[in-house]
Structure to design on (336 residues):
């Protein structure tokens, strides 16, 4: 695959409800090099594709009378959250739910697909990926994120062993497999490094610290990790970094312009440490673009995402997470 890689973020979730078969398929049809499942666990230890263990954000669980009593409040990574949680549902129960659009105000067209698609297991995503590879006669990579790994380990539902097991059974082993494994935490990546050569990516959130760090009494922050020294430490266990694009690489100036002369040294520092750089998340709607790249209209109107991605490619990123892989491909074609 030629870099910069186009990573279909949650599939092509700019056009279909995230993490559905339709979203993953569309990403591949549009030319994405990788599709990006986020994984959480069910009560019976199955890995399923959801961005959150909180199910009501992206499924119709709140409308299912059968599950009314499962609504509860939990502390997840220090945050109090009310809702329905994947770890309280068996896979059989999860399969009774259907996906809905996460951002109906920003992406009203996507609500047309609400209620149509079931929640996929990792094994089903692997099977779908292999089907898509045959259909499109090319490699399709899986860029898999472990969500809340310490939390799931605390429930005796660790994500990593079943993840490696599923990948190994499907033939994904070694550093050249079309796989990336990513996490906002650190310890689970270090654990994975001990047991696999599959490429690992350390994600960097725009504030705070990885959820596993305070659990061990540490003070390391994401900003610490983004320094040249912090990046060299990451390179001891990971192959790349996934930074929030604006905070770590290039934020718009006060006029809402992206001025490449104001870019940080993050990309050069990461490359000097031997790390690939895959920033997130590139989205086409005005709500997610700097003012200078807005189109006339409201937050939901598509702005000039292609220009934003092209600029980051020119700055030297090795891949982009995007909700709009088609626009990513257009930017890449101009860049190459
Ligand atoms: O995984 C990279 C990107 O997806 C950032 O995180 O919150 O969208 O899963 P999130
Ligand atoms: Ca993700």
């Amino acid at each position: 695959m030629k870099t910069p890689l186009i990573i279909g973020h949650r599939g092509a979730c700019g056009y279909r409800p995230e993490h559905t078969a339709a979203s993953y398929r569309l990403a591949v049809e549009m030319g994405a090099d990788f599709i990006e499942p986020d994984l959480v666990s069910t009560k019976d230890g199955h890995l399923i594709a959801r961005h959150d263990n909180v199910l009501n954000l992206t499924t119709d669980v709140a409308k299912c009378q059968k599950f009314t009593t499962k609504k509860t409040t939990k502390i997840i990574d220090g945050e109090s959250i009310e809702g329905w949680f994947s770890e309280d549902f068996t896979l059989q129960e999860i399969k009774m739910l259907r996906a809905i659009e996460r951002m109906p105000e920003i992406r009203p067209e996507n609500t047309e697909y609400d209620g149509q698609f079931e929640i996929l297991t990792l094994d089903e995503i692997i099977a779908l990926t292999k089907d898509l590879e045959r259909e499109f006669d090319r490699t399709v990579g899986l860029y898999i994120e472990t969500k809340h790994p310490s939390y799931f380990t605390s429930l005796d539902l660790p994500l990593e062993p079943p993840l490696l097991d599923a990948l190994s059974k499907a033939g994904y082993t070694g550093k050249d497999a079309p796989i990336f494994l990513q996490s906002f935490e650190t310890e689970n990546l270090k654990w994975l490094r001990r047991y696999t050569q599959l490429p690992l990516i350390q994600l960097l959130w725009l504030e705070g610290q990885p959820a596993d760090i305070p659990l061990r009494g540490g003070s390391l922050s994401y900003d610490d990790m983004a320094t040249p020294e912090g990046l060299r430490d990451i390179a001891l266990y990971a192959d790349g970094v996934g930074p929030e694009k604006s905070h770590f690489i290039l934020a718009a100036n006060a006029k809402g312009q992206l001025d490449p002369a104001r870019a940080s040294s993050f990309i050069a520092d990461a490359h000097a440490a031997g790390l690939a750089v895959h920033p997130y998340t590139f989205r086409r709607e005005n709500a997610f673009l700097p003012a200078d790249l807005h189109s006339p209209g409201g937050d939901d109107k598509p702005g000039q995402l292609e220009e934003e991605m092209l600029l980051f490619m020119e700055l030297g990123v090795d891949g982009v997470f995007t909700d709009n892989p088609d626009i990513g491909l257009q930017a890449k074609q101009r860049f190459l």
